[in-house]
Amino acid sequence: MRRTVLASALLLAARSARAADPDNALLARGLAMADATPDLRTLLIAHRGMRVAARTWRGASLERPTNIKSASKTIVATLVGIAAARGLFSLDDRIALILGRLIPQDADPRVGKITIRHLLGMRAGLQSTSGANYGRWVSSRDWLAFILSRPFTDEPGGQMIYSTGNSHILGVILARISGQTLRDLTQAWLGTPLGFSVPAWSRDPQGYYFGGNDMAIAPDALLAFGECCRNMGRRGDREIIPQGFLVEAWKPAVRSTFSGQLYGLGWWIGEAPGEPMVFAWGYGGQMIYLLPRLELTVVMTSDVDVPRVPGQVFTRHALLTQGILPAFRAT
Questions:
Q1: pTM of the complete model
Q2: Is the dihedral of CA 183, 185, 191, 196 positive or negative?
Q3: Alpha carbons 308 and 146: distance in angstroms, whole number
């Protein structure tokens, strides 16, 4: 934990470093490793704001939207950060004040203690709606009521309990407090300023867009989003994402008991052979890696129609650390 906190501090000071030019021979080796990585569909690498590699496999496209699975949780978290900066709510506001009558009458009173920050950090305390509970949840008549009626397995603010339902609650909150759909907010606050389109995706029975899964974003658009975050929320001279939120989101707060990875607010936090990094992670290998000290953003999308394989994400980490990073060195 101490090492990772140090890594986080380095991450926030990353703009003081300067990345060297890539070693083209080593980069070619990394791209060959990508060719052999199972189920990989696209790979994009940007260095110092310039695209240095772009690959597609098996008919994939860099411009066509693709299901980014749980990487959409990072997008939703970012929208929450923007909304908070605009004064729509505070991260420490209790969700009951916003959801009101949408909270089931028979919900555990501890639901009233859950804050937006708890949801962002997967620390709501409610039983997970991911994994074994996912099918029952998305088959229910009222997704929000189902989530908020789960038993508590920890107190609000306690350990990390990864749950797609947390992000869906955030999506509902964003829609209710803004008066716009989650898709329209994504387009207005991220898509339009960063130059990409956000198509519609699946909704729950009450019409709310799925807040933690199934969002479709093109690889090119993921790179634009990643580059904006790597530049501390700026594109050119315009702030798109509040820098203060990114600083908070990239602080390690909890550790997943399943993957061992550290988590902040909507972002996973790690270290790649001496290099601090943060990343968005979706099922099957939908990844956005940011390594600010190296001025590097790496996007990977993968086949989503593959069986769950334990440790699958580590094949993407291996491609990053063993294949791509050797070509880049900090000076």
A1: 0.94
A2: positive
A3: 25
- Which residues is 286 bridged to in the sheet? 282
- What is the C-alpha to C-alpha distance for residues 143 and 218, in angstroms, rounded to an integer? 27
Tell me the pLDDT tens digit for each residue of 172-214.
999 999 999 999 999 999 999 999 999 999 999 999 999 999 9
Contact (Cβ atoms closer than 8 angstroms) between residue 300 and residue 43: yes
Task: Name the CA dihedral angle for 64, 70, 71, 76, rounded to a multiple of 10 degrees.
Answer: 100
Q: Distances in Å between the alpha carbon of 246 and those of 24, 198, 249?
A: 32, 22, 5
User: Contact at 8 Å (CB) between 226 and 68?
Assistant: no
**Single-letter residue type at 147:** I
Angstrom distance (rounded) from CA 72 to CA 213: 6
Which amino acid would we find at residue 107?
A
Nearest CA to 76 out of 236, 198, 255 is that of: 198
Distance of alpha carbon 48 from alpha carbon 32, whole angstroms:
22
Q: Which residue has the tokens 């470093």?
A: 17
Burial label, 331 (beta-carbon count in 10 A; 0-12, 13-18, 19+): exposed
Q: Say if CB 167 and CB 72 are below 8 A apart.
A: yes
Q: How far apart are CA 314 and CA 152, in angstroms?
A: 31
Give the tens place of pLDDT for each residue, 98-155: 999 999 999 999 999 999 999 999 999 999 999 999 999 999 999 999 999 999 999 9
